């Protein structure tokens, strides 16, 4: 039998309270709403292990069309825990990082929408300008602007 191989990363899932608020936040970063629908029934619960469930989902896609964020609002069963305000060194979900082309301008727009800068906007050598923000519903997002022509991965590979 031929060994399976990874083809692509399709999406990252985030459970939210308000799809509208979180969709708006990710649209401000530059993602596009690809679709929105209700997923329900016993078949869906067999995948998640939650039994009969009703979930409204929204799929957001990056401009290159290769990566998605699936936003889920559970209607039934209800939410049982909340990890949105956990600090960056907590176990589990850490953050999603996006590379952007004008970090200062985007950060200004996100702050006007209520996002909060976590720590500081910093410069990593002459490679990236970086920051973390807590956006809609406290979702932790990393933002990076590439400054030079070489990426951090290329530098590590050449060292």
From TrEMBL:
Domain of life: Bacteria
Gene3D superfamilies, alphabetized: 2,3-Dihydroxybiphenyl 1,2-Dioxygenase, domain 1 (3.10.180.10)
Domain VOC per the UniProt entry, residue ranges: 8-146
Protein name per UniProt: VOC family protein
